[in-house]
Each structure stands twice: as C-alpha cells, then as structure tokens.
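Example (one chain per record):
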Amino acid sequence: MNNNLQLDQPRQQASVQQQQQHRIPFEQLKRAVSSNLPCFFIEYEHAENSKNRPSDISAARVIEDYFKQQGISISFSLVGHTGNKLKFGVNNKNSYATLINTDKWPSQIHNINITVGYRLEIPFCTITPFLTGNRMTYCTRCCCLGHMRDKCNGEYSRCRICLDNRINGQTHVCSNTVRCAQCDEDHHSLSSACEKVVEYRSNLKEQVENALSAGKVQRLVPQDHVQPTEFRLKQNEFPSLPSLMSCNTPWKQTSVQSTVTNNINGIEDTTKILLSINQNILDMKDNTRHIDEKLDCINEKVNRTSLDVELHNEILVKLLPTLASLVDKFIWPMMLNDVARAAGPLFLEPGPGKKASICVFTEVGELWNTSQIPHFNIFHQHGTNKSGGVSIAIGKHLKGSRIDSNIENAIIVDVDDLSETVRIIAIYWPAGQTRVLGELESYITKNTIITCDFNASVK
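Predicted structure:
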C-alpha cells in the first residue's frame, strides 16, 4: 500500500507540472472575455491650456454624474488617453446602446468646452436562415444536364468553356469563346442566364417539393455533434501488476567490464563536447565585449558630432542676420556700382541745366530687384533662363517710356528730355540660341542705340 502511494505521488506532481505548463496567462483570459464595443472620444477645445484640463478619471466622474442627473446610469469600464483625446468605453451592450441613442452628453467639463466623437449609428440587421438549393444532376464530361459522368455516352470529354473535344494525348488550346452545352449560346453551360437551366431548376424544385410532401424522399438535416462521454476510472478495473521476483543468478564479469568501458567512453565524448561548447561560449563572450566597446566608441562619436552640429547651428543662426545685412547694405550696392562703372553712363546732349545718366545691365539673373539704385528708374525684362534678364536704369530727372515687343531677352526704352528722343535696345542672347537680327528692323528709329551681350549665333 505504501509503495502504491509513493508511486502515485510522482504521477500527481508530473500532472500538476504539465497543467502549469499549459496554463494560459490570466491577462489572455481577461482579453478573451472582454468586449469589442467601440469607444467614445472626447476632445477639448484647442484654445484651452492643457494645464487647466482635469485628469482622465476626474473627467469620467464628471460625465457619469451628469448622466445620473439626466436619469441615465452609466459606469465606464475603460478610461484612457489617446493623443489629445480622452477615450471612454463600456463593456455592456445595453450601456453602449444607451450612449449611442442619447443626445444628453455634457457640453463642458470644468468650464472647458468639449466635443464628443465616434458616435456611430448601428442599424439593426435582419437574420434570415440559409436554405441550401437543390443539387442539379449534370455531367462533368460533356457539361450536359440529366446524367452523371459514369453514364455519359460521349466519345470525348469536352472543354467547359469552348466545348471543343479534348482528345487523349493531344494538348488542348482553348479559344476562350464561351458556349453553352444546353442551348449553344454565348454563356457557360450552368449559367442562370440559360433558359434551359432555369427551366430545369424550376421543374426540379417542383418535383422535389412534391416528393417531399408525398414522403417519397427526405431532406437530410445536419445533426448536432454529440459530445463524447467523459472517461471515468473504476476501482479494480486495472489491477496493479505483480512485483517481479528477484533473480539470484550472478552477474557475468565480462558484460560488466564491457558496460563500464562503454560508459567511460561515452562520458569522455560528452566531456569533450561540453568543453568545446564552453570554449565557443567564451569566444562569443569576447566577441560580444569587443562589439560593445566599438558600439560605445561609435555612440560617443555620434554624440560629439550632434553637439558640434547644434553648436554650429546656433552660430549660423546668430550670423545669418549680420550676413544678410552685410550683403544687402554693402556687397550688393558695391557690385551694382562696379557694374554701373563698367557699363559706363551714356552722356548725350541734355537740355538746359540737365545731365543725362543711362545705365544698361545684361545677364542680371533673379537678383535684379533685391536692391534699388538711388535716383534711377529701372526697366526690366525677365530672361528665358535662370541667369538671363536685361535691365535699363534711367535717371529720375529724365523721362523714359517702355516699348512693348515680342523679342525674347530684350527690352526697348525711349528716353525723352534730351535734345532728341533716343531709343535704347538692350539684348541678352544665351549661348546656343539662334536669332535673326531682322526682327529688330521695325523697332529701329533715327536715334537708336543697340547694346547686346552676344552669346548666340547670328543668321
């Protein structure tokens, strides 16, 4: 009896350990029975300061108290925060339906305006039982109704799409032209568009209903699955085996020696394998340590580079206003002054007490309007490329008028208040562009000055 108890204890311990191994965590059990009902979201106005907003639990209590005042008993099972929105949920379908259908949500929480989102209108869906249709009798060999494959009299099987014969040993190439085996129309053989198929179904349904009502046939209904009965162990059903009788025969020394030798050899092999595994683990440990050291060095360099970038960024941010002011107030005016000197003013015979000042600039690009020349009116024509563009600067004591033209990269200006009216034509031609000088003939007058930056071929 004591021996049986000692044998049962290890079995019970093994069964308990096995149950603990296959036990599912409690968090998964809670999730299995949790609700999948959608949540409600509440969003505060953006103008309110986030520090003045109540906590999530306080907001949930305010909403629950408000619903109680309206005669609605609601208890939220989920209160959380998602981004800038509060998330509320219930695990009761009746509570969820009440929240969906009610319009008595509060408009404020602690004097802060709120809006309620994700209030879905869930329609009621009708549930209708699925009734299986009557199975048609048709041949998979010739695609005709009324018989099965084993009773088909056709010589060859036919393609289900084009109905061509499929001869054994020959590769069939389907024409993909749909034909019906019942009426030879352009649809499949069992399509509901076929009149013969519709007629066959109608007759089959009528005759099946007549046979069912007459009791000739019975429709098979799937039966419920029968649960197997639980096995129960009855007392003395499996008696214990008798104890083995002890053997008094002496052991053979040769077999004992061979067994010991084999065990020693196996232990030595196992020891070698364990030593090899131990050495591999030590090598992997050293390699891991080296990799960690390299990663630490790389991390230190990255941090140092990040600090340098931040420092340089701060310095550049501080220098940008100074550089912009330097370019705008010093470098750019000096450049314009040098260009004006290089172009040279055009001195014509002015009227009494007047001095003529006219400057022509070619290839001014997109920076022509970043700075103004004092005491000059500027006439500009945009270029066809990024570096193009032509400008004519005329002193404000003179009167200038622009002449409209369709010539690319060119500007025409008439200058008055001189002894005679002078027309100035300024042209910039980019490299690789072919132009005809004859297009200027209609704009040339008696006193015309043409100044160009020729980079193009001329016909």
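Caption: The CA atoms of residues 67 and 73 lie 6 Å apart.
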